[in-house]
Amino acid sequence: MDALFGEALQRHGIGWVECSNGITWKLNLSGITHRWIIYGMYEGGLGIEWARKALRYGGVFVDSGANVRQWLLYLGAIDGLTAFEFEPVDSQRAWLQECINMQAG
């Protein structure tokens, strides 16, 4: 996907984007890791699919190094899921908080 759309998307820089799962999130399209959130499941989906299966009835999910919350974008719709997201980098934590605030309305 990035070979087809990466160059065009990166020109948009930072903005609010509807991701492949329908959630609007702030992304930096100049970076490939953020563009993958648009294309589909981040990191190829293997880890996310494993987590979805393991957590299908709820549970606790801990993301240490949450970055911009890629994983929770795909796991957040699971009923009964409790998520703890930790991001030690101030700039990334501020980005994450802005996205959370946007979702809260």
Features:
45% helix; alpha+beta; two-stranded parallel sheet; globular; 105 residues; 21% strand
**Unreliable stretches, pLDDT < 50, 5 or more residues?**
none
The DSSP helix count reads 5
How far the N terminus sits from the C terminus, by CA atoms, comes to 31 Å
Name the structural class. alpha+beta
Proportion in β-strands: 15-25%
Strands across the major sheet, in which order?
Answer: 1-2
Overall average residue pLDDT:
85
Largest sheet entry: 2 strands, antiparallel
Helix content: 40-55%
Q: Any idea what the radius of gyration is?
A: 14 Å
Oligomer: single chain
Order of helices and strands: HEEHHEHEH
How many structural domains?
1
DSSP strand tally? 4
